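Quick one: co-fold with zinc ion.
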Amino acid sequence: MDDIDCAAERVESFNQVALNAVLSRLSGPLSSGVCKSCFDIIEPERLDANPRARHCSYCAAEEEARGHQHRRCGPR
Ligand SMILES: [Zn+2]
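Sure, here it is.
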């Protein structure tokens, strides 16, 4: 009964995709879990607080410090 196993797996991964789609529609793309600056892993508690975090807390602090130089996000 490989077909059933396969179908169940497909449903499961579809749910995952659908969930991600809903989440990203609600709040923008989720973090990859890896810092974009130093490619270190972002702290889980940081991702917990902000699932869209793109930087580890160290780089986020640095980004914030020079955020006034180039703000590409526009007004908030
Ligand atoms: Zn970093």
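If it helps, The longest helix spans residues 2-27.
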